[in-house]
């Protein structure tokens, strides 16, 4: 394991019972140095009971002595054969209670913009079950009318790297199946980071939409000769008699 069990409680015990530096405790417990300093100041982990790593077979006492003697020494977690592989997450992703109400919106976003993802991939990304995903795909969810698609990365339900990895896996699976993808499907298989870097397609303003196909006929093009001002305004030629009548008598 990369860090001890109950790392915050372990940090509390080390701060209270040793003279290790904040950086040493932070490195051992997988925390930030400022967070350990907050524990020492009483601003962080208030009410958390210390967890002795020596008594719980996670750290040798000699490691603490070496760390106290040398501030640059990094504590080494005691090897525990029974704990090998425990850091690997098993089962569905755990979603905090405060974010569980956002899962339907994230599922709708994934099935809408990345339909190539399997139900298993969607379930791992946002921590949900296949029946819930299927009900949203089929729009039979009890609250489907009030659900708006929202990016799960923006909701904090998964990381951007995890979403991109799942999309790339779906792309490789699609290619291995040998099926022909449409242009729209191929664009969706591009990672979110790559799609955001693409140049936007030029759009015609709605006020002149449809004029891109407008053209004059060949006869109209020949007849419409606007080479000079007279032909443009189609002014009639002045009559000499009218000019004589209008001229003053001298």
TrEMBL record:
Residues 237-250 have a biased composition (Acidic residues). Residues 174-250 are annotated as: Disordered. It comes from the Bacteria. This is DUF1013 domain-containing protein. It comes from Szabonella alba.
